[in-house]
Design goal:
Length: about 100
C-alpha cells in the first residue's frame, strides 16, 4: 500500500468537506459494520472513513433528517430529565414547632 497516496487522498477528501462535523452513512464491512447507519463525526474522521470505503457522505436531505431526529431526541430526553427532578424545600424544625399566628382580618 502506498501510504503517501493514501494520506493524500484523506487530505483531499477533508479539504472538500465544508463543515467541522459531517454526517456520513456507513457501508457494510467485513468486520461487522452495518450498512446505512448515519452518524455525525469530525471532518478528519469522516475523510478517513470515506477514503477507507467504510462510509459515504450523506446527502443534504439525509443530513437534515438525521440532525432533526437527534434534536427531537435531545428535547425529549431533556423534558424527561426535567420531569424526573424532585423539588425539595427544607424547613427548619424550629419553624414547625411555632404556633400559627392568627391572621388579622
Amino acid at each position: 500500500m502506498n501510504l503517501k497516496a493514501y494520506y493524500q487522498k484523506i487530505r483531499e477528501v477533508e479539504q472538500s468537506l465544508v463543515e467541522p462535523f459531517t454526517v456520513v452513512v456507513s457501508h457494510a464491512t467485513s468486520d461487522g459494520g452495518k450498512e446505512g447507519v448515519p452518524v455525525e463525526v469530525p471532518s478528519q474522521l469522516a475523510a478517513k472513513m470515506i477514503a477507507d470505503g467504510r462510509a459515504h457522505l450523506a446527502g443534504a436531505d439525509e443530513a437534515r433528517t438525521f440532525r432533526q431526529k437527534n434534536a427531537e431526541a435531545k428535547r425529549a430526553a431533556d423534558d424527561e430529565a426535567l420531569a424526573s427532578r424532585m423539588q425539595v424545600t427544607i424547613i427548619p424544625a424550629t419553624d414547625l414547632r411555632k404556633p400559627a399566628k392568627p391572621q388579622k382580618e
